[in-house]
Design a protein that fits this description.
The chain contains nine helices and seven strands, in the order E-H-E-H-E-H-E-H-E-H-H-E-H-H-H-E. By secondary structure, the protein is of the alpha/beta class.
Length: 249
């Protein structure tokens, strides 16, 4: 039996951290299914990938039927599935509890937690047949510590952390490892404009909290790859902060 990852699924692969994860996996010879809401963004990611045989699926992760169909087609076309990375997530409203819009709350939980569950539920039957099965979820430092103006996002990511450990408790004895990566503030195309709009004192404060500076998508992607790979074969149920030292103080 092969002990290399052959086929993997990455959600939220159209930009930012998800795109970098896709590049990291492709550079290591993995055949990928890139999942995201916007086909055009997935096509841009595809153009950056080494290797061939990669697939795209414009899927809403909150729709179990769409998720099931995409994962089934990919797994059957690639004679199985070895890894799932659940990176898709949203943060539609930065707000304290009293100001959180009901729709934003529902959507945040539906995507950030429900989407992870839908993907795991669909992928597990295939992962259980793999010789190197792993799940890597993407949490957040906001899921590890209460943060201002994150009354919906933070709890949704805390739930992802707990869900990941539940996966580990249920499936590790069957060989499926599950670990969670919790990034600090990572500069991406999507949030760069918001970052640049901050008053200089606020931006300096944010940067100061990250002892190694703000992060980049490849810095997160390399840790995701390690956790997914056989090199992390004795790791499951772990929550790994990739945060430039944010959690130290």
């Amino acid at each position: 039996m092969s002990h290399q990852i052959r086929a993997a699924i990455i959600t939220g692969a159209g930009s930012g951290i998800g795109r970098a994860i896709a590049q990291e996996f492709a550079n290591n010879g993995v055949r990928l299914l890139l999942v995201g809401r916007r086909l055009a963004m997935l096509e841009q990611t595809l153009e950056l990938l080494s290797g061939d045989g990669h697939s795209l699926a414009a899927v809403d992760v909150t729709d179990p039927a769409q998720v099931n169909d995409a994962i089934m087609q990919f797994a059957e076309a690639n004679n199985g599935l070895d890894c799932l990375v659940t990176n898709a997530g949203i943060n539609p409203q930065r707000a304290a509890a009293i100001d959180v819009d009901a729709q934003a709350w529902d959507e945040t939980i539906k995507v950030n937690l429900g989407g992870v569950h839908n993907c795991c539920q669909a992928a597990l039957p295939y992962l259980l047949k793999s010789s190197t099965p792993s799940i890597v979820t993407i949490g957040s430092i906001a899921g590890l510590k209460g943060m201002g103006a994150r009354a919906a996002y933070g709890p949704s990511k805390a739930a992802v952390i707990n869900y990941t450990q539940a996966l580990a408790a249920d499936y590790s004895r069957q060989g499926v490892r599950a670990n969670c990566v919790c990034p600090g503030f990572v500069v991406t195309d999507i949030n760069r404009e918001w970052l640049d709009s901050l008053p200089s004192a606020k931006r300096e404060s944010l940067e100061d909290r990250h002892l190694l500076g703000l992060g980049t998508p490849p810095q997160v992607a390399s840790v995701v790859w390690f956790l997914a790979s056989p090199g992390a074969s004795w790791m499951t149920g772990n929550v790994i902060a990739v945060d430039g030292g944010y959690g130290c103080h």
